[in-house]
Request: fold
Amino acid sequence: MDRKKLAAEKAAQYVKDGMLVGLGTGSTVFWTIKKLGELVKNGLDVRCVPTSKNTEILAKKVGIPLITISEVNELDLTIDGADEVNRNLDLIKGGGGALLREKMVASISDRLIIVVDESKSVLNLGRFPLPVEVVPFGFEITSKQLRALDCIPILRTEHNIPFITDNGNYILDCHFSIIQEPHELNRKLNMIPGVVENGLFIKMADIVVIGHINGNVKIFNNTK
Ligand code: A5P
Reply:
């Protein structure tokens, strides 16, 4: 079975009747959303907050009742994917460009459950270019300021024009190779004017579910 699907369907088991649930974005959590759609058809009573327009479309298609983040104060849990996970369960996210909404939704969730395949598990974060969401105004200046943090920022494009996030912003994919101090970098990045949010999720994940090629699923709990 697909490693992503294995992890994603396992995580669906954490969703219980009556819960308010955040729905992440990407090709892994896609399978959680499909599974939740089936469970809803069979009577599961949940209301969910999507983290992107794509997830909203998918969730509607499979019949999951949706609410907006503005209608809730907190969520019972959020299930989402990641681009990298280290041993402290710190993450890089935003490969799909949804990092801002994902971080906002995660920040009001009692528990953040991350679903990945084993290829996302790393010793050090940083091989995956860190997505940083920036306002289009003066992004060249923001890019220079990011470069001063020892990375090479590349403007994300789609069909040869800048990729636009659901919030109308740009993404600068920052090539670090290795991130030695993720906590400190997270702080420094968000102090740069023009940066809206970055894809480092530090001490946010509670549970990481990893699907392996041999069909095993490993679950890691964060003690925080
Ligand atoms: C979306 O912006 C991202 O944070 C995704 O959660 C992340 O890129 C993982 O996506 P996949 O599950 O498609 O690899």
Helices lie at 3-11, 29-41, 53-61, 99-107, 139-147, 182-190.
